[in-house]
Amino acid sequence: AAKVQINLGRLYDMEKDAAGVWTVTTAPQDPGFHYYSLVIDGVSVADPASESFFGTGRMSSAVEIPEPGVEFYTVKDVPHGELRSKRYFSKVTDSWRRLFVYTPPGYDQDTGKKYPVLYLQHGGGEDETGWARQGRTDVILDNLIAAGRARPMLVVIANGNLPREPGVTGIYSRAGMTGFTRELLENIVPYIDANFRTHADA
């Protein structure tokens, strides 16, 4: 490589020492989860020495800066729910798709109980893994439910990325969301209501 940079919200030029090791010191980062990429001779790639996440429209690396005193997404000694990966067939895309479902503690034991459902969507450039992995939905809900700050619920995390319909431009436009609206109402909600114990009303 002739030039190596790190993209952490802005580009930082790295320097190569005599041993061939590239290093850089960035500006201090705010607490939280930050995507980053290595840029090698102008080509952006995930760091092969770190875990990768789908979060910038492609696989990226990430660094998390802990915030003192904030522990709502720290695993604690409380009852734990389960994050389940499910596949369903979409009549909108004519393909198999994946979603994640959080089931609260006790879901499999109390088989007569029904639950409200929260449909939680990822941000732009992410997919169904965003809230499941980066967002730690299961840990957050476990802690909130144990503290009495949330009622037990199902949380459904689906992939909002669909192929654009013919003639539709602008992924974030109202027209660009038409496909996902159909996906949610025609496929995802009926699948969840048919396969999980839900309160199937608004």
Could you explain how this protein is built, in words?
The protein has 202 residues and is an alpha+beta fold. The protein is 17% helix and 29% strand. The protein contains three helices and twelve strands, in the order βββββββββββααβα. It has helices spanning 129-134, 137-146, 178-195, and strands at residues 4-7, 11-13, 15-16, 22-23, 32-40, 43-45, 52-54, 59-65, 82-90, 95-103, 117-119, 154-158. The strands form three sheets. Strands 1, 2, 5, 6, 7 and 8 form a six-stranded antiparallel sheet that branches. A four-stranded mixed sheet has the order 9-10-12-11. The chain has a two-stranded antiparallel sheet with strand order 3-4. A hairpin with a 4-residue loop joins strand 9 and strand 10. The model has no long low-confidence stretch (mean pLDDT 91).
Short description:
The chain is α+β, with helices and mostly antiparallel strands and 202 residues long. It contains three helices and twelve strands.
